Amino acid sequence: MTSSTPARSGTAMAVASMICVQLGLAASVGLFDRVGPEGAAWLRLAWAGVLLAVLVRPRPSAFSRSALRACVALGVVTAGVTLLFMAAVARLPLGTASALEFLGPLGVAVARGRGGAKLWPALAAAGVLLLTEPWHGGIDPVGAAYALGAAVCWAAYILLTQRVGDEVSGVRGLAVSMPVAAVVATGVAGPSVLGELTWQVLLAGLGLALLLPVIPFVLELLALRRLTVAAFGTLMALEPAIALVVGLAALGQVPGPGAVAGIAFVVVAGIGAERSGARPPADRPTLPPGGTSGPAQPVPEESEAAAGTRC
Questions:
Q1: Which of 213, 259, 277, 308 could form a disulfide with 255 if both were Cys (CB 3.0 to 4.6 A apart)?
Q2: How far apart are CA 112 and CA 98, in angstroms?
Q3: Are 88 and 147 in contact (CB under 8 A)?
Q4: Which residues is 293 bridged to in the sheet?
């Protein structure tokens, strides 16, 4: 198998994930009037946690302590990026909030990129600025703090997702992290929403949970088994472009010249990341027999750094 094959499949999974995210956000708008943006985010996370726990039924005893800690940490940052971004867009223009949040994956791409690979994050950043035009909106300090918090959580999410994907076979890692995210989100947003729940709202939340976050998070887990975190972080720049295309097709929102230039920038950056973003075989720790996350096989020090190892 050539090195380009896993990069291409990983890129396809990442793009499919971003499409699901945008469709899920668009479909969530109907819930905003009933339970608010934070309530809609909590409802999706709660259902996602229940679905993955019931369908996968992970056994924590089958995980190593390191893998279990990584899964719990992934659940915390998953709740954080979801809730903090919703809090940010309630106080900031969407373009401003999106540009600030993108500092997370961009920071990962710059920090982990090597040599010429740093060109693609820079090009992606320019494209995102042209797409979101954050200079058109005012900056609320509290909203900016929420957006920057979401950026930090998004960066941690990318690193932890790759680590969980390396240490735990299948999607059992997500079956632990998503219930943790649901518990965290319930403690933060659940009490203010419970009184507004109806059977119709609950069923709508169940359907949305499949579109966002269950399917996208599974795709991202699989993508990060095939891509470096630098390439994945750069590819995330495609999300604003995908949102713009969805807006044009579904809502008739015609982009201006700056937005068109922004799309061109992030598409070129995405192509560059796809071509240079395959993970070397040494980056993938060997799973023990049975596919569980038992004692890890020795891996080179450079490989652990590339996999985003953090306790």
A1: 259
A2: 22
A3: yes
A4: 63
CA-to-CA distance for 2 and 210, rounded, in angstroms? 33
Spatial distance between the Cα atoms of 184 and 199, rounded to a whole number of angstroms: 23
Cβ distance 237 to 271 under 8 Å?
no
- By C-alpha distance, which of 164, 185, 7 is closest to 82? 185
Per-residue pLDDT 10s for the chain (311 aa) are 455 688 889 999 999 999 998 888 778 877 888 898 889 899 999 999 999 999 999 988 889 999 999 999 999 999 999 999 888 877 876 667 777 888 888 888 888 876 656 788 888 888 888 877 777 766 788 988 998 999 999 999 999 999 999 999 889 999 999 999 999 999 999 888 888 889 999 999 999 999 989 999 999 999 999 998 888 988 887 877 787 777 677 667 677 788 778 878 877 887 777 676 777 764 444 444 444 444 444 333 333 323 332 33
